[in-house]
Design brief:
By secondary structure, this protein is α/β, with parallel strands linked by helices. It has helices spanning 8-15, 19-26, 34-47, 53-60, 76-91, 105-117, 134-141, 164-177, 193-207, 225-237, 250-262, 296-311, and strands spanning 65-70, 95-100, 122-126, 145-148, 158-162, 183-187, 218-220, 244-247, 272-277, 290-293, 320-322, 325-327.
Length: 335
């Protein structure tokens, strides 16, 4: 025979109080004294009471669940952001449902609709490609939506972002300080708004020393190592007319280092390489990669905190902009 679950009425009978008093005590109602709350909670623990998530949801109209939509679970950058979200959620007794949009706008929207149908309390989307379209979702369902590093132009809901303009400036100013004037930029996917902003920041910093990245030295990758290999091979085909390469992200830089190594070139002796993100592998490449670090865990943490504030109806919730910073390793040198 299966074990019979302990109910609120069972606890009420042992405690000698009404079941409504037990319910209020377990939900931390201010109508119940702290002594009574402590006694009832102790009894609940001793009797093995386990609250029903469904029952809680019917009372609070909350599911205790956050929906999380990521571009791809294979990206190491995303992994650290998700860790920040999940650990913050768990500390506040929330669970997460993780979904993968595969960077496809239509799939992203379908995933958000599915999460709404599951009655999640809020939705967090990383690198959204359809940002402004969530306005209609918010009006239709009242579910808070928080975007991390939104990639779509236009109006959107609530966001936590990195100051990519400043990040590009950090990279450009660093390379300029080492004497580099002929620099290539390997961009991200064509839809990646952050890619253009990072390039703009780099160009702004280079202008301070009378330099620039001309259009012919802007090559498009896909944010993955294979895109970095392809772009680096194109530069090699042109005779490598640069002394430094600024990469949209660290995974692109992985491909660049691979292509240069295969061509018999040394980094940084023959060409300097700088990445962006500071994923875990960056410190273990050969040579260890100099990069512009995004505070990935903090991105997730702040997004989750924002989602909780919106769920609780807190006033004055504002967008968050976090600063990146240079992490100097061994892949760049003075010329």
């Amino acid at each position: 025979m299966g074990r019979v679950s302990v109910t609120i009425k069972d606890i009420a009978k042992v405690a000698g109080v009404s079941h409504s008093t037990v319910s209020r005590a377990l939900s931390d109602s201010p109508l119940i004294s702290s002594e009574t709350k402590a006694r009832i909670r102790r009894l609940a623990d001793e009797m093995g009471y386990s609250p029903s998530a469904l029952g809680r949801g019917l009372v609070t109209r909350r599911s205790g669940t956050i929906g999380l939509v990521v571009t791809t679970i294979t990206d190491p950058f995303i992994g650290e952001v998700v860790q920040g979200i999940e650990e913050t959620a768990l500390s506040c007794q929330y669970n997460t449902i993780l979904c993968n949009s595969n960077s496809e706008p239509e799939r992203e929207l379908k995933t958000v609709r599915a999460l709404r149908e599951k009655r999640v309390d809020a939705i967090i989307v990383t690198s959204s490609r359809v940002g402004s379209l969530y306005l209609a979702h918010l009006r239709g369902a009242g579910v808070p939506i928080v975007l991390i590093n939104n990639q779509a132009a236009g109006d959107y809901i609530h966001s936590v972002i990195i100051d990519d303009l400043h990040g590009g400036e950090v990279a450009g100013r660093y390379l300029a300080s080492l004497g580099h004037r002929r620099i290539a930029y390997i961009a991200g996917p064509i839809w990646a708004r952050a890619s253009g902003i990072r390039l703009q920041g780099c160009r702004r910093a280079l202008a301070e020393v009378g330099a620039d990245i001309p259009p012919e030295l802007v090559l498009f990758g896909n944010g993955r190592p294979d895109g970095g290999v392809q772009a680096a091979n194109e530069l090699l085909h042109r005779g490598l007319p640069v002394t430094a390469i600024f990469c949209y992200n660290d995974m692109t830089a992985v491909g660049v280092l691979t292509a240069l190594h295969r061509a018999g070139l040394r980094v940084p002796e023959d060409v300097s390489v700088i990445g962006y993100d500071d994923v875990a592998i960056a410190a273990h490449l050969f040579p260890p990669l100099t990069t512009v670090a995004q505070p990935k865990y903090a991105l997730g943490q702040r997004a989750m905190e924002m989602a909780l504030a919106l769920i609780n109806g807190e006033p004055g919730v504002r967008d968050v902009v976090l600063p990146p910073e240079l992490v100097e390793r061994e892949s760049c040198r003075r010329v």
